[in-house]
Amino acid sequence: MILGGLRFLLSVFAVALLAAAATPSAAQDKDGLGDLKLPDISGYARSHRDAPLAAGNGGEVTLSAQLVDKGADITRGIVWRVFKPEPDAKGKLPMVASAHGGTAVLTLEPGSYLVHAAYGRAGATKRITVGHEAKRESLVLDAGGLKLDAVLSGGQRIPPDKLRFSIYEGKAGADGDRALIIPDVKPNTVIRLNAGTYHVVSTYGATNAVIRSDIRVEAGKLTEATVEHHAAEVTMKLVREAGGEAIADTSWSVLNESGDPIKEAVGAYAPMVLAEGDYTVIAKNRDRIYQKDFSVEAGKNEEVEVIASEATAVDPDEGAD
Questions:
Q1: pTM for the full model?
Q2: What is the rounded CA–CA span in Å between residue 272 and residue 252?
Q3: What is the largest CA-CA distance in the chain?
Q4: 247-271 mean pLDDT
Q5: What does the pLDDT look like over 159-190, one tens digit per residue?
Q6: What gap in Å lies between CA 140 and CA 154, rounded to an integer?
Q7: Which residues pair with 11 in a beta bridge?
Q8: Contacts (Cβ under 8 Å, ≥6 apart) of 248
Q9: Minimum mean pLDDT among 46-55, 198-207, 246-255, 262-271: which range?
Q10: Nearest in space to 183 (alpha carbons), one of 194, 168, 197, 173
Q11: How far apart are CA 204 and CA 39, in angstroms?
């Protein structure tokens, strides 16, 4: 009896729930969500898109770039940046979108923009107008590649870790200096540049083995340039006899043919790269100073021994009262 009464009550309760679900409540809105409270989504998940979200009436713009006019589209390595053409309160152009890779598709609000495409050190800027219809914009970079290397006389290879290049603008400024574009370029590295003539400085070692040259970069082409150094690696040591052990705690100074100091070092050995020519080395150990004249021949690496018993010795106290 009691069990039958419970079954009846449960049935009535289920029918009441079904009726409530089928009948709209005064608290429910037209979407059937009632007073359901959702968290502020923007406070939990921030958009990381490079391009701004479409504003309903935004236009889609496809951006592509070529090295030369009517050339193939560049498929990777481009950095796209889109700016508003009017500067802000700080005098800077606000950036509204960016993209990386090759061809980029952006959705922008209708209006005027400045688009910049950077491809390595090459770049181009174009003003575009965005409307409601999808459109395509193309930028011609007028750019090429430059790959640099250097050898010694006779084609002898130079250790890559001792060779560096610096690329400057081709034309000097009013003060006679050239603007540095890229420093510390490793050999056989492809550098993307706008077409034009550049002043390249090749440095072998860290002393005076320097070669300068003007190199022309052609649009759409890879220019490979190899310069020739007339230099050699020289290691100096102070010894008591020929072939003897190097004396520690020695200070070194190397003078060029004009007597100007070009390199200083401290230690038992003084390794350095020197351009071809005549030099004087001065070795100081304790209270004695020794010097020796020597010559550097291009491509001929050698040791220069300053023999204490044979080199010219100068007593710093000599002639003192």
A1: 0.75
A2: 11
A3: 136
A4: 96
A5: 999 999 999 999 998 898 999 999 999 999 99
A6: 41
A7: none
A8: 267, 268
A9: 46-55
A10: 168
A11: 64
| Contact in structure between 283 and 311 (CB atoms under 8 Å) | yes
Q: Which residue reads 């700016």 in tokens?
A: 83
- Distance (Å, rounded) from C-alpha 132 to C-alpha 144? 35
For residue 114, give the nearest of 94, 88, 99 by alpha carbon: 94
Q: Which amino acid is at 272?
A: M
DSSP 157: B
pLDDT at 317: 54
The predicted model gives 224-239 an average pLDDT of 97
Burial 55-76 (b: 16+ CB within 10 A, else e): eeebbbbebbbbbbeeeeebee
Structure tokens given for 270: 């003084």
Residue with tokens 């052990």: 245
CA distances from 191 to 5, 37, 144 (A): 89, 56, 8
Tell me phi and psi for residue 160, to 5 degrees. Answer: -55, -30
Closest CA relative to residue 68, chosen from 144, 140, 145: 140
